[in-house]
Amino acid sequence: MNTLFIHLSPPHQQFSIFYSAAFVAAVLVLIWEGRKRKFPVLPWLLIIIFSQILFITGTKLFALTGEEWRLMLENLELVPAAKKELTGGILLLVGGIWLGKRWLKFRYPVADAFALAIPFGLFLQKWGCFFAGCCFGKLSDLPWAVQYPVMTLPHYQHFQQGIIGAGQSLSLPVHPVQLYEGIGTLLIVFLVWHFGKRWKIQGSSMLFSLSCYLFLRFLVEFLKDPLAHTKGGNSIGPMNLTQWIILILLP
């Protein structure tokens, strides 16, 4: 069966391009939202910068293992963190919005200004994940399944499991879960934009946006390979740890 083959050279460079593009796009959307809502320019820019810094920090900190946390606390120095955990970034981002408002005594309601920026930024970032091969899916025989070459995570994990040989240059076909999630985040952008004017209570668009993403992530997890997880891939009953956390957060 023919599958979609992704050639990556080098994968981390392509991930960095989309990762940077996602941040630039999110910042531009936030600046546009601030202009539309007539926010004071300087404090709004500071809140944007602060929230983005906390987002990056959250993706790094939540990806650390228990041993890495122990070494960091014992030595009082940061440890290198190549992996990222998106959920941690979103949690610190939300905290950063709240802290930024309090420190700057910013009296304008800002939460809804992030409702479009977050899913739109995630949409671009997921393309980087797709080309890099991180967050890859379970084995699939669908026509749009993807095979990854040497020096990518799917190929490495399949070789480690012994399901491909040393001479095979491609991984087995897997679900392109990054694209599933990317298409879903683009749908969230449309839904937030469509329903945004109907909400009467401040913060509703932001809550709607985050709830939609959590629900999307919950569904995608069923097709994601457990070995692609930074954390949360371990199964607990019929679902993995990430899905159980989402079920707690969604209400």
In short:
This protein has 251 residues and is mainly alpha-helical. The protein contains nine helices and four strands; from the N terminus they run E-H-H-H-H-H-E-H-H-H-E-E-H.
Note down, in words, how this protein is organized:
With 251 residues, this protein is mainly α. 58% of the residues lie in helices and 3% in strands. The protein is built from nine helices and four strands. Strands 1-2 form a two-stranded parallel sheet. A two-stranded antiparallel sheet has the order 3-4. α5 runs antiparallel to α7. The longest helix is centred in the first third of the chain and has 26 residues. The radius of gyration is 19 Å and the shape is globular. The protein starts with a strand and ends with a helix.
List the helices and strands and how they pair.
Elements: E1 4-5, H1 11-36, H2 41-61, H3 66-75, H4 86-104, H5 117-132, E2 146-147, H6 153-161, H7 177-195, H8 204-220, E3 235-236, E4 239-240, H9 241-249
Parallel strand pairs: 1-2
Antiparallel strand pairs: 3-4
Helix pairs in contact: 1-2, 1-5, 2-4, 5-7, 7-8, 8-9
